[in-house]
TrEMBL record:
Gene3D superfamilies: 2-enoyl-CoA Hydratase, Chain A, domain 1, Lyase 2-enoyl-coa Hydratase, Chain A, domain 2. It comes from Belnapia arida. May play a role in fatty acid biosynthesis and insulin sensitivity. Belongs to the enoyl-CoA hydratase/isomerase family. Pfam families: ECH_1 (PF00378). This is Enoyl-CoA hydratase domain-containing protein 3, mitochondrial. Coiled coil: none annotated.
Amino acid sequence: MASTGDNTPPVTRRDEGAVAIITLDRPAARNSLSRAMLAALQTALDSVAVEDGIRAVVIAAEGPAFSAGHDLKEITARRADPDGGAAFFAETMAACGAVMQRVVALPQPVVAAVEGIATAAGCQLAASCDLVVAAASAKFCTPGVDIGLFCSTPGVALARAVPRKPAMEMLLLGEMVPAEEAHRMGLVNRVVPAGTALATALELAQRIASRSAVAVRMGKRGFNAQAALPLAEAYEAAGRVMVENLLAEDAAEGIGAFIGKRRPEWRHR
C-alpha cells in the first residue's frame, strides 16, 4: 500500500465482522487526497471487492476533517514540470475518477461516516458512497470557484446524488452546506450527534451485512445500471435482475422462511 513521506499508511483498514472499515489517515493534511492517498484507497477498495466475507464497507476518516479534497500543495509543486504539470494533473484526475467509480462499482454497499468538512474531492467521495451518515457539525462544500478551479469532477458525483439546482448552487457559489441542509437536499441519509458518525455508519453497515449478500450485491449493481437508462429499458434491466435474484438460493430460502414464519438462514448464494 502506498504511504506518506513518514511511512505512515495514508489509508488503514480494520474489519468488524463482515464490515470493512476503511479510514483516511492523513489528519495533519485534513485527509487531502494526495496521489499516495488515492493509490492506497484504490488498493483497499480493490482488496475488499474480491472478499466474499465482507458484505458492507464504511469509509471514515481520522481527525477533524473527512477530506479537504485534492492535495493543492502537491498539485502546485508540479507546475514546475516541463509541461506545467499537465501530465500530472491528468493522471491525478484519472486516478481520482477511478477511485470514485470503484466505490460505485464495489459489489458491497459503501457507507460514508463524515465528521467535520467534506470539501471538493472529499465531497465527491462522500457523494459517491451509497449512504452518507454525517455528524450534525459536518459541512459539505465544492469551493473550487473561490480559487479559480471549478469543481467539475466533484460535480459528476454531486449531480448523481442531488437534484440539478442544489448541485449547481453548490458548484457555483462554493458555500459550506451544513449537515441538516445536505440532508434536506438528499446528499446525506442520517444526521447524528458529533462524534457518532462512525458508530452509526457501522450500525447501518452491519444491518446491511446481515442480509443476503447475493441479493444486496445484485440489488446494488442493478440499481446503478437502471438509473442510467430510459424508463422502459430500466424496467427491462431491473426485471432481468429480479429473475436472476429469484433463481438464487437465498431468495428461495427467504421466501420460504417468510411463508413458514421463521428466520431465514442465508447461504449468500
